[in-house]
Design goal:
Distance between the termini: 59 Å
Strand content: 5-15%
Number of helices: 5
Strand order of the largest sheet: 1-2
Shape: globular
Low-confidence stretches: 17-26
Mean pLDDT: 75
Helix content: 55-70%
Length: 115
């Protein structure tokens, strides 16, 4: 009986850690569009209902996907991070996907939260 319980616990632990790793890999892959293939970028854009017919290089697909993700994040949180007026340095960080959380945006002196 003790061996059965041990095997059951080991199986649960392995499946949980495997699921967690898969989730982390998916988050990592979604977070960095620059590491995605053009085929994956097109598929991700399709999930947002977008198609880039005029895109001629990978960078344009990446930019479009990042913009779609930022717009989705803005809709979910009811606002977006943007550069303060007169921003001179680091302004592009305000519009990055990782800055679209109000706490992160507020921590950067050159960004402001716009509802």
């Amino acid at each position: 009986m003790r061996a059965f319980v041990w095997c059951l616990l080991l199986t649960i632990a392995l499946s949980t850690s495997s699921s967690a790793l898969e989730g982390q890999e998916e988050e990592s892959r979604q977070a960095d569009a620059t590491k995605m293939s053009v085929k994956d970028l097109k598929a991700a854009l399709k999930e947002y209902g977008l198609k880039c017919k005029a895109c001629s290089d990978k960078g344009e697909f990446v930019d479009m996907l990042n913009a779609a993700r930022a717009e989705e994040a803005r809709k979910q949180v009811g606002g977006s991070c943007r550069p303060r007026e007169g921003c001179e340095q680091g302004c592009d960080l305000c519009s990055s996907q990782s800055s679209q959380a109000q706490g992160v945006c507020g921590a950067m002196s050159f960004c402001e939260w716009a509802a």
